[in-house]
Design brief:
- It is globular and about 35 Å long.
- The protein contains 5 helices and 2 strands.
- It has one domain.
- The chain is mainly α.
Length: 105
């Protein structure tokens, strides 16, 4: 699943778009109970890789359906655990998105 996930996130960044967890799970063919948990686990793994490389967090491209265009709380919890300052979640998310979009220009 990770190669398909990375490809989907690269396309989103190139197209300067975000998506929801549910839409991405469907795009990746994840079905059944726990599909969002499997997706978020994979996204957290990518967050670890991105953070270790000093890169923008690709998981920022995935947002919650009911979270006003922001990722789910777990995204911010993981980012904090990785050493990022997420005291202002919206500003942190905006910086991540801007860096991801700029990296494909």
């Amino acid at each position: 699943m990770i190669p398909k996930l990375e490809e989907a996130l690269a396309t989103l960044a190139k197209d300067r778009c975000t998506t929801t967890y549910g839409a991405l799970a469907a795009q990746l063919g994840l079905i059944g109970p726990g599909r969002i948990a499997r997706l978020t686990s994979a996204l957290e793994g990518l967050m670890e890789q991105d953070s270790a490389k000093g890169q923008a967090l690709r998981a920022a491209l995935v947002t919650g359906r009911a979270s006003n265009g922001l990722p789910a709380r777990g995204f911010f919890d993981k980012a904090r655990a990785l050493g990022h300052d997420v005291d202002d979640p919206a500003a942190f998310h905006h910086r991540q998105i801007a860096a991801l979009f700029d990296s494909t220009s």
